Inverse folding.
């Protein structure tokens, strides 16, 4: 009996040592930075972080340039900056670009690459859809000017639901992922399976969603021909390539 109790005490002592070691290990693990620490940053800190990492101020860059001598107003979204999400600054920059193009009678190009509205800004980000669409209405309907939307991968959410699909001509890149709601969201919400390729350029083109599917290499010449067809010509005829 004495031998049994001694062995049992040693066994219990060994088990307690293992539990203590495990507890210490778990505690150390919990004190390590979480993988979700990026998500726990404040919105301002995340903006500062992306600005340092990308060298960009926001998820869209806008400006005036030329394509084979034809002046154009151009906006380019960058997915590397918070997934190209559309917040108040993005909406304001695109709206001002459209208004500038309207006042100066310039053709407009917007290259879309976005995960949609920026959730950190709540309803303010959703309001950008209406603001941009209103500016486009004046540009396209009232002034009869020409807007080309170029959809790259991915283009989703509020960008797809607004200016992404409002182009007079909509061009998509091959094999691009283009949708409103993502595959996972649809499957979880509707409890259905979304077939592979259903939200890619080639399938959507067959259904009539785009006017053209154009790879990047010939895109410049395609845009130049489109603008000239719609009576936008080079400032200098010698600049035509």
């Amino acid at each position: 009996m004495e031998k049994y109790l001694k062995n049992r005490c040693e066994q219990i002592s060994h088990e307690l040592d293992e539990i203590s070691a495990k507890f210490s290990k778990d505690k150390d693990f919990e004190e390590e930075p979480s993988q979700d620490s990026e998500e726990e940053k404040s919105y301002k800190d995340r903006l500062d972080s992306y600005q340092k990492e990308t060298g960009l101020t926001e998820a869209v860059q806008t400006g005036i340039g030329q394509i084979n001598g034809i002046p154009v107003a151009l906006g380019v979204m960058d997915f590397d900056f918070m997934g190209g999400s559309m917040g108040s600054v993005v909406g304001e920059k695109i709206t001002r670009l459209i208004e500038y193009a309207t006042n100066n009678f310039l053709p407009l190009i917007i290259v879309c690459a976005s995960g949609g509205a920026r959730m950190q800004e709540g309803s303010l980000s959703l309001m950008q859809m209406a603001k941009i669409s209103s500016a486009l209405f004046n540009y396209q309907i009232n002034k009869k000017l020409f807007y080309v939307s170029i959809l790259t991968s991915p283009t989703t959410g509020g960008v797809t639901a607004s200016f992404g699909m409002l182009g007079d001509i909509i061009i998509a890149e091959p094999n691009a992922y283009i949708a409103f709601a993502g595959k996972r969201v649809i499957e979880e919400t509707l409890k259905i399976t979304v077939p592979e390729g259903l939200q890619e350029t080639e399938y959507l083109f067959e259904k009539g969603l785009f006017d053209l599917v154009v790879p990047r290499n010939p895109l410049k010449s395609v845009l130049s021909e489109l603008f000239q067809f719609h009576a936008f010509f080079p400032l200098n005829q010698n600049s035509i390539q």
Strands lie at 60-67, 70-77, 108-114, 147-155, 169-172, 212-213. The chain has one domain: 8-17+48-230. The first helix runs from residue 2 to 31. Residues 23-35 have pLDDT under 50 and may be disordered.
